[in-house]
Amino acid sequence: MKRPILIHPDPRLKKVAAPIDDISDELRQLADDMLATMYDAPGIGLAAPQIGVGTRLIVLDCVKEEGAAPRPLAMFNPEIVSSSEELNTYEEGCLSIPEIYADVTRPEAVTVRWIDPDGAEREETFDGLWATCVQHEIDHLNGKLFIDYLSGLKRQLITRKMVKLKRDRAREGV
Questions:
Q1: How far apart are CA 24 and CA 46, in angstroms?
Q2: Residue 137 falls in the annotated catalytic set
């Protein structure tokens, strides 16, 4: 089931998400709902706080090649266990900050440990777009948005645009 995505500024986007103790059918369903919401948006990643759920769950699928099989991942309690010294700059966007993009510099590769929907502990090293995406989504779990990497002035301008967007959508009944 598709879920509504929160738009910045929303205080729920700035809260640190709670760890997950036990993976239930309800949480597996939440992960499926998040993937459906992400694909529909369309996006390549989504964190539970973006749909108003304060738990440490992210989903991502960064396969963009035409005809390539999708690779949906659901990560419960993801944590970065190591980062490369090499940095990479990507133009990032966010489903909670629609139509706004900015260059953000992050480690080029990260090793992430998480629990999969079956309850198994997994660990994998991601690079390129996958590394950027997983770091962006884990930031959401810590109450951090990609615009927090920008100057205060840029952040203020973007926040004003989002307030106007929310006001316009409310008027239109969206």
A1: 19
A2: yes
**Residue 55 β-bridge partners:** 18
Find out whether 113 and 123 touch, Cβ atoms under 8 Å.
Answer: yes
Helix, strand, coil share (%) of the chain residues, nearest 5: 35, 30, 35
DSSP-based three-state secondary structure for 134: helix
pLDDT at position 64 is 84
Q: Which of 86, 91, 124, 137 is catalytic?
A: 137
Amino acid of residue 35: L
Domain boundaries in the chain?
Answer: 11-172
For residue 14, the tally of other CB atoms under 10 A from its CB is 15
Confidence tier at 173 by pLDDT (50, 70, 90): confident
Nearest-angstrom CA–CA distance, 2 and 173: 18
Give the global pTM: 0.95
Preceding omega of 42 cis (within 30 degrees of 0): yes
pLDDT digits (tens, 9 = 90+) for 12-47: 999 999 999 999 999 999 999 999 999 999 999 999
Question: Residue 51: which of 25, 76, 30, 72 has the closest Cα?
Answer: 30
Task: List CB contacts of 117: < 8 A, sequence separation 6 or more.
Answer: 23, 28, 31, 74, 76
d(CA 27, CA 29): 5
Homologous superfamily assigned to 11-172: Peptide deformylase (3.90.45.10)
